TrEMBL record:
Molecular function via GO: starch binding
GO biological process assignments: regulation of starch metabolic process; starch metabolic process
Compartments (UniProt record): Plastid, Chloroplast stroma
Main location: plastid
Source organism of the structure: Kingdonia uniflora
Family, per entry: Belongs to the ESV1 family.
Name of this chain's protein: Uncharacterized protein
UniProt keyword annotation of Chloroplast present: yes
UniProt KW keywords: Chloroplast, Plastid, Transit peptide
GO cellular component annotations of the record: chloroplast stroma; starch grain
Region span, Disordered: 1-33
InterPro entries, A to Z: Alpha-glucan_binding_chloro
Length: 405
């Protein structure tokens, strides 16, 4: 085949996945084709082929042209500005306050915006599939290959995908951008993207995003789901991983959670109070009737040479639709030789207008009181099914597959 013709690879195949991963061929087992072209062929390519269409990624970790030799891994010092580690024993003890939810709400809002940006990008790329070339060379000497296909999943869902792979001119960086849309029975629709890359210095990165909607055949309820999975690793012992998941249905039920992990080389010198490993988990669930549960769990680990120092804090709350429930939390610290300190607190709410407050610490503190105070908790999500439905414009525009006779 002469390079430069608009001859894409389009085929229908049986998919081995059930929608849990990205469709199409796997990037990590891919090797760039051998370069057998002559100098004349290369000049002809550069004159006749347009550069590969490549939307600017929303996250700088997935840029194809990398000016740094390593991925940026945040230090605990940057995280502790908003996640202050608890004080160890023998230092001044401050009253444990309830976690400010404004930060997590802001994070959720930023994630909602990112989902919308990814959806618009995927829809635009899929709309322009017919305009793409099979392969080509960019003005900077980097090369790219484009492939498009159709897959039928075991559940009958038809998935259309397109990917572009590339390698830098000096062959030090390899990358892939993949987009897909899928549709099936019961109004199932899906839109997603995956961006991956690696280089010769040991950097590896991947960003996966997907949103879907469907209707339950038994209850008739509409469901919407969003998920994201991002990770990176460098050649200096640093890595990070973030996972995000949301689910809504038209009855008002909603569930969301996020898990985050970041680590750097344990031999990296750090200032006091900073960590080599950092974790965060949070989640919330709403029953659609006024009951809800929430939790947050954050902890850090610092290498001290002959051991690890660890510290963290966590809280959770569980309420029914009658405003009856419990709020509780713990702040803790553990030294490298096994020494420990912790402080726990709790609140009992029974809907009477009085709150039972109690707690204790390993330093001998103890309290148990009742206070006249109103009960407050988040009965319904600030971002629910209707908000998700209204914001998922590109997902709703995915075409249904043709009906089989």
């Amino acid at each position: 085949m002469k390079v430069g013709k608009q001859d894409e690879s389009i085929f229908l195949s049986k998919s081995g996945t059930s929608g849990q991963g990205a469709p199409g061929p796997d990037f990590w087992s891919w090797t760039p084709p051998l370069d057998n072209s002559t100098l004349e062929d290369t000049i002809d390519l550069q004159m006749t082929l347009k550069p590969a269409p490549s939307p600017k990624p929303a996250n700088p970790v997935i840029e194809k042209e990398r000016s740094m030799n390593i991925l940026s891994i945040p230090f605990e010092s940057t995280l502790s500005e908003t996640h202050n580690p608890p004080l160890p024993p023998l230092q001044s003890l401050m009253e444990v306050g309830k976690t400010d939810v404004s930060e997590s709400s802001l994070e959720k809002h930023e994630t909602d915006i990112l989902f919308s940006v990814n959806a618009a990008e995927a829809a635009e790329v899929l709309h322009k599939v017919g305009e793409a070339f099979c392969k080509g060379v960019n003005p900077d000497g980097s090369k790219w290959w484009k492939e498009t296909g159709l897959e039928q999943r075991p559940d009958g869902v038809i998935c259309r995908w397109t990917l572009t792979r590339g390698v830098s001119a000096d062959k030090s960086v390899e990358w892939e951008e993949k987009y897909w849309e899928a549709a099936g029975q019961l109004n199932y629709k899906e839109l997603g993207s995956e961006k991956s890359g690696r280089d010769t210095t040991g950097n590896v990165w991947r960003e996966y995003w997907k949103e879907s909607m469907w209707q339950d055949i038994e209850s008739g309820l509409q469901h919407m789901e969003k998920s994201a999975d991002k990770c990176g690793k460098n050649g200096n012992g640093g890595e990070w991983h973030e996972k995000w998941w949301e689910h809504y249905n038209s009855s008002g039920q909603a569930e969301k959670w996020a898990h985050k992990l970041c680590s750097i080389d344990p031999n990296t010198p750090l200032e006091a109070g900073h960590a080599h490993v950092w974790h965060e988990r949070w989640g919330e669930k709403y029953d659609g009737k006024g009951g809800s549960t929430k939790y947050t769990d954050k902890w850090a680990e610092r290498s001290e040479g002959d051991g690890w120092t660890k510290w963290g804090d966590k809280w959770d709350e569980n309420f029914n639709e009658y405003s009856q429930g419990v709020k509780q939390g713990e702040t803790w610290w553990q030294g490298k030789y096994g020494e420990q300190w912790n402080r726990t607190w709790g609140e009992g709410h029974n809907g009477s207008g009085w709150i039972h407050k109690y707690g204790k610490s390993s330093c001998g503190e103890h309290w148990d009181t009742h206070e006249q105070q109103d009960t407050w908790y988040e009965r319904y999500p600030h971002f629910g099914f209707q908000h998700c439905f209204d914001n998922s414009v590109q997902l709703r525009e995915v075409n249904n597959p043709p009906k089989t006779p």
